[in-house]
Each structure stands twice: as C-alpha cells, then as structure tokens.
Amino acid sequence: MSSFIDLIKTCGELKEDVSIKSLTSFRIGGVAKYVVYPNDLEGLKEILLIISEHNIPYKVWGMGSNILASDDYYSGIIIKLDKLLNKFEINDNSVVVGAGVSLIALAYKTCLLGYSGFEYATGIPGSVGGALYMNAGAYKHDTYEILKRVLVLKNGELVWLNKNEIQFSYRHTSFSDHKNWIILEAKFNLVKGSVSDIEKIVNDRKERRMKSQPLNLPSAGSVFRNPDSISAWQIIDEVGLRGKKIGGAMISDIHSNFIVNIDNAKAQDVLDLIELAKLLVKERTNIDLIPEIELFNWSSK
Ligand SMILES: Cc1cc2nc3c(=O)[nH]c(=O)nc-3n(C[C@H](O)[C@H](O)[C@H](O)COP(=O)(O)OP(=O)(O)OC[C@H]3O[C@@H](n4cnc5c(N)ncnc54)[C@H](O)[C@@H]3O)c2cc1C
Asked: How many DSSP H helices and E strands does the chain contain?
C-alpha cells in the first residue's frame, strides 16, 4: 500500500524539511515537515482529501508576508498555490486573477496598462489570496473596494461568492472564520484611466513608502491595526518604544509600527516586542493594540 506521502507526490511537488524562514518576509520560523505545490486544481482537491483522511494539519500559504511563524518544528503540510494559481486576464474593465498572483505584480501590470483600481497595492508584498483573506489595503483604499466576486474551494466544492456574501472590514474578513476554505480566484472591477495620471499616483506613493518604511530589513509590514482615534505608530512612539531592541528584533527606528529582523531574530524576540508594546500602550493610554500580523505554529497561542 502506498504511503500518504507517495500519494501526495502524485498530485504535486513535495518538499521535505523546509525552513519556514525561506517562506516568510520576516525571515523567521522553524522547519516545516512538508511543503507542497499542487500540480493543478484536481491535485489540490486530492491532496486535501488525503490529508483529511490521514488527519494531517495543513496551512494554506501565500507569500508569508503577514505571518510570524514560531521557531518550532511544524509537523503538518504547508500548501503553496503560487505555481498553480498564477495567471490573470483583463477583460472589459475587470480582471480575473489567480490567488497565487503577486499583488504588487498585478498592481503594476494593471496600472501600466492604464487601469485604475490597484494603485493602493503597489507596496503590498503579498499574494491576491492573502490580500483577500485579510482585506489588505493602504492609503485609505483596500482590496474589497474593487472586488466583484471570489472563487472558493469549500469542502471540496467550487463556489463563487459575491462580495455581499463576504463580511469585510478594516484588515479583517469572514475568511478568518472559515480556515478550511481556500481562495482560488477573484474578479475585480477596474476603471480605464490615463497611464500618466495612474503612474504619478503610484510613483508618489512609492517615494513616500521608501522614505517612511524600513524596506531594507525583513519585516511583516505593520504589526498592529490602527486604533480608531490614532495611528498605531504614533502611540508606540509616545510610549517610547521607537528603536527598542529585544534579541535580534527591533521596533523600527524609521516606522514604529514595523518590527524588523536586524540580526537573526528569534520568533520569540518579535513576540516579546509585541507583548511589550501592547502592555505599555494599555497601561498608559488604555488602548488595546490588536495585531495585524498572524501567529503560526505557536503551541501556547
Ligand atoms: C514591507 C511590507 C509592507 C506591507 N504593507 C502592507 C500594507 O500597506 N497594507 C497591508 O494591508 N498589508 C501590508 N503588509 C502585510 C502583507 O503584505 C499583507 O497582509 C498581505 O495581504 C499578506 O498576503 P500573503 O500572500 O503574504 O499572505 P500570507 O502571509 O502568506 O498569509 C496570511 C493569511 O492568509 C491566508 N491565505 C493566503 N492565501 C490564501 C488562500 N489562497 N486561501 C485562503 N487563505 C489564504 C493564510 O492562510 C494566512 O492565514 C506589508 C508587509 C510587508 C512585509
């Protein structure tokens, strides 16, 4: 009888003992027992069946740009969709795009073709699936603003969900209540505009980001959601944590809502900084900071 691993190998490319550091923008994390790149949709469905029959934990992964993975060994399977769902097609002022496509690549390509809609996304280094999962956004625009519908693999069935069937708010969607749903594809509305106007917006924002974000160091972008009344970076600054270091991690001295990996940081170094910021901010302002980044493979969390 074939082992479940032999079966999975017939459905996709399987890698064993993969460093999670190589899968996250933080460059932090332990080792994953398996990472699989499904060959095709049938392969993905089959893999999900096999791992369900064998009760193996799994995690769908985009670009790992919003994840703080623990340094522990992960004995499950990480499913990467970027080789399978990596195409997009523009038609009649809309684009249909695979969940594994890079949001930055999509944003630049549509903008350079003179389509307005994704200008907000040219600095968000995630996948379309990851952006839909957490409603990524910037400059007061977000992913759901231009969304029409999403194709989801839900308990083995393909289902198109219209935008009004998904709950979404600032950096949150109802996909986080359905961890076994896999986002496969989405359709977004675009508006035809002038390439030079769109390019100007994109270039201005790029310049702002280059000045205001520590893009030379590994991070996962903003660590906390902005509370209603004030920016998270501002309160973290006010409690004196700009530049604070723990182990190999530091609250960025350029942007206080970024934690950067300055010297082979342990996941715990980052978590300790997160806890410290939450504690000081709560003590001094009574505001509860809510993390925007997601913890993965923490046994005690
Ligand atoms: C330098 C930098 C700047 C950033 N700037 C911004 C910003 O301006 N605005 C912003 O919102 N974010 C920002 N981020 C954070 C991050 O890029 C976004 O949250 C992004 O949307 C995460 O996408 P991802 O593909 O990396 O998802 P991952 O980090 O890989 O995964 C995040 C979650 O999405 C789930 N997921 C991913 N793909 C799928 C799928 N196909 N189906 C179901 N679930 C899925 C995962 O299981 C996980 O739970 C920044 C990060 C960095 C490093």
From this structure: 7, 20
- List of residues 6+ apart from 27 with CB closer than 8 A: 21, 218, 261
Q: Establish whether residue 261 lines the binding site of ligand 1, counting it when its CB lies within 6 angstroms of any ligand atom.
A: no
Q: What residues are labeled active site? A: 171, 222, 292
Supply the pTM of this predicted model.
0.96
Closest residue CA from atom 9 of ligand 1:
137
**Separation CA 35–CA 249 (nearest Å):** 27
Q: How far apart are CA 83 and CA 135, in angstroms?
A: 22
Q: How remote is the CA of residue 217 from the centroid of ligand 1, in Å?
A: 17
DSSP code for 254: S
Comparison of pLDDT for 227 and 2, the residue scoring more: 227
Q: Tell me which residue has its CA closest to atom 2 in ligand 1.
A: 221
- How do beta strands 74-80 and 31-38 pair? parallel
Mean pLDDT of the chain: 95
Ligand 1 within 6 A of CB of 65 = yes
| Residue 87: partners with Cβ closer than 8 Å, 6 or more residues away | 97, 98, 101
Residue 300: pLDDT band with limits 50, 70, 90:
low
CA–CA dist 110, 115 (Å, integer): 5
DSSP conformation letters of 15-56: EEEEEGGGGSTT----EEEEEEEESSHHHHHHHHHHHHHTT-
pLDDT at 2: 61
Residue 278 has a CB neighbour count (10 Å cut-off) of: 17
State pLDDT tens for residues 99-114.
Answer: 999 999 999 999 999 9
Helix (H, G, I), strand (E, B) or coil at 292: coil
Site of tokens 């089959």: 46
